[in-house]
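Service request form, structural biology core

Requester: graduate student, group of Dr. S.
Request type: structure prediction, single chain
Budget code: on file
Notes: please return the result as structure tokens.

Sequence provided:
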Amino acid sequence: MGAHEIRIRLGGVSRQRAYQITSRADFPKPVADLAQGKVWQTEDVEAWMKVHRRDLDESED
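Core staff response, request fulfilled:
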């Protein structure tokens, strides 16, 4: 899953917001860093979202 897919899964957040989220110390580490950008395991991102999505919603208010 790339940054664009993560943005979509997070409800269409901005590029800047997606960067902030994916840069968090508790966000899963990317499995690859390609010329086109970082790539994460979908399962890792989905599991992280299940735990943290409510926190993210509250911080956007």
